[in-house]
User: What shape does this take?
Amino acid sequence: MRRLTVYRLEVPYREPLRVEGFEFGERQGMPTCSIVGSMRGDEVQQAYACARVVERLEHVEERGGLRKGVRILVIPCANPLSMNVASRFWPADGTDINRRFPGDAHGETTERVAAGIFGAVHGSTYGIQFASFNQQGDFLPHVRVTRAGAVSDESLTMAEEFRLPCVVSRDAKPFDTGTLNYSWQEWGTHAFSVYSRTTDRIDRPSATLVGNAVMRFLGTRGLVSGRVSGGADGVRLDEAELVDVRTEGSSGYLDGLVKSGDVVEKGQELGLVLDAFDAHVRERLVAPVAGRVFFCRVKALVQQRMVAYRIVPL
Amino acid sequence: MIETVFSAALPVGERLIVKKNRIEGRGGRGPRVAVVTGIHGDGLEGQFVAFELAQRLRERIGDLRGIVDIYPALNPLGISASEHGVPLFDLDLDRTFPGDPRGNMNEALAAAIVADIKGANACVDIHAPDAHLQEVSQVRLEEQFSKTLLPLAQFLNTQLVWVHGSTDPLRSTLAHTLNSKRTRTLVVEMGESLRITEDAGSWLTEGILRLVEHVGGWTSSSVALPFPRLVRDGNVTTVSAEVPGIFLPRLELGTQVRAGQVIGVIADPLEAEVKVEVVAPVEGAVISLRAQPLVYPGTLLARVLGGAR
Assistant: This one.
């Protein structure tokens, strides 16, 4: 394992931003696989899960388990500057590095950071990002493929090799064009976004689950040697097939009754919306279909017209 | 008449309500023009225009034919918190269009705004710059809509009309959505975030009246500024910081500069040194100037329009 500075930026009154990478295997050439952890300042779980992958790859390399000719580059935390001040986005201007790819070395600040990161990870055969949603919640661990390039269909089939509970495909939206995942695909990389249960707090079991999934993928792809085991026969579905359960006519406290991964029956209560002043039940949120809980809102307060749960229908 | 465009319950004893001021003329049937602002909570330049325009119309209501709808606060939570985006959702409302009536509150809000404005004869969407800049007043329009929008843009009394290329993120804006639905929508950028530039606002108010007149809704007088300068992406040179520090401008917005003339300096107050003198790369007018002193490498310091190297 070699530790290297992928990108460095001088900033006012603080130590320079250093994006650090961990290189395994070959020293030259495009990475066979690049793995990126957090890109936003609140993606603690993503950085943690990725750091655990660094630890595991270190052991794999020590015991000679890395296949010849393979080069793996891991960037556990692409944005320590934001993480150290607990700001989800770039503190100075509120921009999101993951909307700036492929970046521009002479552009605005976060475009420069994105260009620095992309310069290190572009051209990879496989690209894995530990991602988070803008809406915080409790998510069923899954791998996601955004249809953006010619490689997407093949990537979708490969995504099953993570053997996570769900493989979700989705069509690219306008904002996707600035994401790392999209830029990877434009340059022929098979790109995967891996989601675990949380964002700003560590959930050890799901970090281990997605770490195992990444190692399984690397094993199945022949990048690391050793037996590949475990995982699940995941459900493959399009994001549009998820069934939303919203607060329709009420707002207040959300009293959740289920968690991600729970199997629910049609008509089962998922949560209650309680009045903020007298705690009376204002709305009962029930499952419109039988299925598995994919997303639970975790914020205690809920507005009217908010998706509180998403279900993978059976 | 004050009307509700969208309403939804917030968690604790309050509703999010987006309102508009519908001003109906007494001069007979006529067109409908929409004036919207406050999509970003830190862009307050449109507040003055909303206020001035409603006053002008009320004073001469007999000269108005048809309807002017004024939406001063499309993002009321953002304005109340002086935040660029929607505080609850940590996202930019102007990247959520066309929205979804069945989606989350912010998506339903976006869909309701589009449904309410769609079909207007013209729409003006007033913004302040969002990157800690000062900017001269300008209409910004996408190249793909320029054929239908340029004939209207000339009336708004701005200093520039900037025709720019389309990018994917712009497809999620209110203006792009409305223009795609054949509701001609002009984006005006001017002034500075969290500030009001009354001069530019007064001229824009007159300009909106000229626009209403052009579409057949205003029969009173309004004042015209000289024809705005037409700008395309290739006419503008950007000047960025290459080192971090404190930017001290050495000229004012709108100044005509020579190539090599000092625009400002980047200072290091700790070492008490000027780290860099920032110079104009071309001759021309400074149409954007950094307003916030703290800069990083890559921070936009100025835009210079026109001239030669």
